[in-house]
Write a structure and sequence with these properties.
mainly alpha; 3-stranded mixed sheet; two-stranded antiparallel ribbon; 19 helices; 64% helix; 4% strand; globular
């Protein structure tokens, strides 16, 4: 535990730790060209699994670290931000949100993390993508001016929420298979799954010989573990009262604090958490709307700034900083549409390729696995459709390209193919 005498010192430690961990993450991701969309693209288009194995290694490292920390009593994931293990499994939101996000990141040339990395490297296209995602993500969870309605309540809640399934004590694999022995089940499943994923990643000789891919996987995974650890272990020691986590202190603010001065705007973002990027983009927009009120600062905002700063530093040191703008109107439109889809899908699925694909999976949450698979398939299918239309031009209608792409990805039997495989 990291014990502090007052809330503000503890919160400051949490925020600056998040920034520094993200700074390292941003620099390493830029240096190694770690990219989840690029991983899907390499796999689908040229059969290269190098960056996909790096992503899988990051998952294995994060899963191993979280499993061991939780088994050792160092980490508790019953209440996190977002609530990965919540009893209500809104599987349709993870499925649809993941698909939408996967399509969006393909149009926008990268996931949320890659958007921040590119901004640090001088890519002005990504500044626009970030701005659009931020606005969409903000209004997915915050009402429109003069209204009680959000984008989520308007577009999704009415038909997705009734399809949710109550999983009882939790939706993680440990609770599902272990019942009353959930803790033991999490340890066994976590260690076994981490080992299998790591073995698959290192099975390829090309991957074992790639320093950058291994470095990326290890550092990204460790960064996720580090932020989980810090966010779960910062506490405030109150004389004659005991120790309080930041969320507990927030809940007892009137009793523990001398005044309302400096009180954060919300308590949920003080809970145990790790890297995710779409919702924090919305938080950043809210922070700007609120006049940069310090009470609106969150771990998510600090990680967003840290990744950009880390990427910028590496770009300067490596002399890779380059200003880049849209090559055409079509390029702008594609990125704009992609950003909208990423904002919608990322919030609906409760995370992105990092937030669900690594952080969420490290908790063994079922929704995270659904989101991860949906994102990969959404992105891969979009690439297939784009490739078929490029090769066959006018002959490849959208429907023909879609059906043929789904056959390629084993989503439909071969009888549905309308274009020769490429």
């Amino acid at each position: 535990m990291m014990v502090f005498e007052n809330f503000f010192a503890a919160q400051s430690m949490l925020l600056w730790s998040a920034f520094l961990i993200a700074l390292l993450l941003g620099a390493v991701v830029n240096k190694t060209n770690f990219c989840t969309m690029g991983a899907v693209s390499d796999m689908v288009n040229i059969g290269d699994w190098g960056r996909m194995r790096a992503w899988l290694l990051a998952i294995a490292v994060a899963l191993l670290g979280v499993t061991l920390l939780e088994a050792g009593g160092v980490l508790t994931l019953s209440q996190t931000f977002p609530p990965y293990r919540g009893a209500q499994l809104n599987w349709i939101e993870h499925l649809i949100g993941g698909l939408i996000f996967g399509i969006g990141m393909t149009f926008a040339s990268g996931c949320g993390n890659k958007t921040l990395i590119r901004i640090g490297g001088g890519n002005l296209k990504s500044v626009m993508v970030l701005a659009v995602i931020a606005v969409i993500a903000y209004f997915m969870t915050n009402p429109f001016p003069g209204s009680d309605a959000t984008l989520y309540s308007t577009l999704f809640y009415g038909w997705t929420n009734p399809l949710g399934v109550n999983m009882g004590t939790g939706q993680d694999l440990g609770s599902l298979f272990g019942a009353e022995q959930a803790a033991t089940a999490r340890l066994v499943i976590g260690l076994l799954l981490a080992a299998l994923i790591a073995l698959f990643a290192f099975k390829a000789a090309d991957f074992r010989g790639s320093f950058d891919n291994i470095l990326a996987g290890v550092v990204v995974g460790l960064a996720v573990v580090a932020l989980w650890y810090v966010s779960a272990n910062v506490v405030v020691e109150v004389p004659d009262e005991g120790s309080y986590s930041l969320t507990q202190y927030y809940g007892e603010w009137e009793m523990l604090a001398e005044s309302e001065e400096g009180k954060p705007a919300a308590g949920a973002p003080l809970a145990a958490q790790s890297f995710t990027f779409i919702n924090p983009m919305g938080q950043t927009f809210g922070y700007a709307l609120g006049g940069f009120n310090v009470g609106l600062l969150t771990v998510g905002i600090m990680t967003l700034l840290g990744v950009i700063a880390g990427s910028f530093l590496w770009s300067i040191l490596s002399r890779g900083f380059r200003i880049e703008w849209f090559s055409s109107v079509g390029d702008f439109v594609a990125h704009f549409i992609g950003a909208i889809l990423m904002g919608l899908g990322g919030v609906l699925a409760m995370g992105c390729t990092i937030g669900q694909g690594i952080t969420g999976i490290s908790t063994l949450a079922i929704g995270s696995f659904i989101t991860f698979i949906s994102i990969v398939y959404g992105s891969a299918l979009t690439m297939k459709v784009q490739y078929y239309k490029m090769v066959y031009e006018e002959e490849a209608t959208f429907v023909k390209a879609l059906l043929s792409g789904m056959v390629d990805l084993h989503l439909l039997p071969s009888a549905f193919r309308r274009l020769d495989a490429i």
